[in-house]
Write a structure and sequence with these properties.
By secondary structure, this protein is of the alpha/beta class. It has a single domain, classed as Rossmann fold, CATH 3.40.50.2020. It has a 3-stranded parallel β-sheet, with helices on one face. Strand 1 and strand 2 form a beta hairpin. The longest helix is centred in the middle third of the chain and has 12 residues.
Length: about 110
């Protein structure tokens, strides 16, 4: 997922040696402070039953990742895991993503 830039998407494309399938899902999300829309630029981006890893820079409340997972499922794909650079564990976003494996490189257990 991306929010204006593509720092993680470009790196991921290099790691898996494939095209950058950066897509914006079209599923509404609502957070306590943020209300937005996640959308897909190309509805043919996923094949039916295609396995997907949702990658984002930050896992906070889990709303954005949850919206992306729902959209992948609407498009016929299957989310096998979610990967994040940073996880703010004190916001409990992982609890909203119980049905998939969640990985994070850096975890903060309490606010600074």
């Amino acid at each position: 997922m991306e929010d204006g830039g593509r720092p993680l998407g470009l790196h991921r494309a290099q790691v898996v040696k494939g095209p950058d399938q950066h897509r914006r899902p079209a599923h509404e999300r609502a957070e306590p402070v943020i209300v937005g829309v996640v959308h897909v630029d190309d509805v043919d981006a996923l094949a039916r039953d295609q396995r997907v890893v949702v990658v984002d820079d930050l896992l906070a409340t889990g709303g954005t990742a949850e919206a992306a997972i729902k959209l992948v499922e609407i498009l016929g794909g299957n989310v096998s895991a979610c990967a994040f650079l940073v996880e703010l564990m004190f916001l409990h976003g992982r609890e909203r993503l119980k049905h998939c494996e969640v990985m994070s490189l850096i975890s903060y257990t309490a606010p600074a």
